[in-house]
């Protein structure tokens, strides 16, 4: 008999799994294929679609039940209807299902036509096709009720297009956000996916706020994992900009600190080389000089930080680092 000693540590996968709460696990469903190609949900622009829908609504057969479904979300992330931690996509799917249930209960006959209208094209596509992983149980139940009833159609209508009933549904969805969260509500898969994308970004920004070099903090530069605009500059121009930001470059203090005996410590104007010198050098033509407002420190920090294009334009047009203040 063998005994496996429990590990005293957790793997990276196990630690990653603990970063997010659990959610309903979607089932692996086979893809649905249809003998006939479904007509597209959107065939015209929003204004034309809204006008066409209102025209159809005026001539709809008597006894037709029209369901307007909508979902909303507060800026703080509260879901609609009121759901737990969820996205608008989940709220729209739940609203469509609840609307269909109500319509079936209100139908005068078992064959009454029911038209389910939603302004979310992605939800409408999943309602009549392959269910999405998030809120999968809502889509599958909706499709089951559709098959059982027989005469249910899904129609996409544009939002905020002066369709009175849809605007009313939008207002009710916003009001539903203010209701208390149901006890024991689990987050949706779409919500967890958004959290999984946002958490690394938040962690990166938190790290930058703590670990940013002291010389960079007054510049108010934001950390990014994408390609910054500075990398579109030429190598020589980028070198001068990064030197001004880090204060490591062709500057008098830098050369003296590292005993660079052959370095030129002064600009051709006679002043010592400093990161701030381009903003004070008298050899730069007055028309190119930057106005140091509201204060010299703020203006310089902005010019070598987020407003680096002005710094690049000034130093490039007068060839500052080539003619006025060369390295040697």
From TrEMBL:
A single Gene Ontology MF term assigned here is: nucleic acid binding
Gene3D superfamilies assigned:
Ribonuclease H-like superfamily/Ribonuclease H (3.30.420.10)
Kindly indicate where the leader peptide sits in this chain: none
Quote the InterPro entries the UniProt record gives: RNaseH-like_sf, RNaseH_domain, RNaseH_sf
Taking every annotated instance into account, which residue ranges of this chain make up the domain RNase H type-1? 61-178
Q: What is this protein called?
A: RNase H domain-containing protein
Species per Swiss-Prot/TrEMBL record: Hirsutella rhossiliensis
